[in-house]
Design brief:
mainly alpha, 9 helices, transmembrane
């Protein structure tokens, strides 16, 4: 799924009014499995001037980037962290790790040839799903609109759950940025 969708799903599952630390942790946890990609790709694209085709066609699949991805996308490591949070009865840790695990649970079945080794350190095996959230050759034209629709519904749920202009402004921003990847990929690859 697109990162904004992960943020929306994580907030819908774990953010609660009157609990700002938990709500913030849920959003951070939903972002963390993708953060390394944004940092690595951003560095190459905007600082080093590496062509997008190299970043997403070569570096994304490189062993050096893979070493990072297997850590922040590991069900095993996030599961251990969740177990610690549960043992300590720490709601902030539970929200953070729960949102990260939810992120992985949606990524796992929605990446065809661009998945991650989700069961590291037990194995470096990467599941090649027959379905992709973006690749039209693997039902991306079906999954993408479903993702957008569910995100809009969850934004309505969050809108009803939270009041005040700051939370609602963030909900509107999250809903709007769910559409941003469509624009970004058109820019990066010269069209859908």
């Amino acid at each position: 799924m697109n990162t904004p969708a992960h943020l929306i799903f994580g907030a819908a599952a774990f953010a609660r009014p009157g609990r700002p630390a938990e709500s913030t942790a849920a959003i951070i946890g939903a972002l963390l499995p993708d953060l390394s990609l944004y940092l690595l790709a951003g560095w190459h694209l905007f600082i080093l001037g590496t062509p997008p085709e190299t970043v997403f066609g070569e570096l994304y699949f490189s062993e050096s980037w893979g070493r990072v991805f297997r850590i922040d996308n590991s069900f095993i490591l996030w599961g251990i962290a969740l177990a610690v949070g549960l043992a300590l009865k720490n709601r902030v840790v539970i929200a953070l790790t729960g949102a990260a695990l939810l992120h992985l649970a949606f990524d796992f079945p929605l990446h065809h040839d661009d998945g991650r080794p989700h069961f590291w350190p037990l194995t470096s095996w990467i599941f090649e799903s027959p379905v992709s959230y973006w690749d039209r050759r693997h039902y991306g034209e079906i999954v993408g609109p479903i993702e957008i629709g569910v995100c809009l519904i969850l934004c309505l749920v969050l809108w009803r759950r939270f009041d005040g202009w700051i939370p609602r402004g963030l909900i509107l921003l999250a809903g709007a940025t769910q559409l941003l990847p469509l624009v970004m990929w058109a820019f990066v690859f010269g069209g859908p």
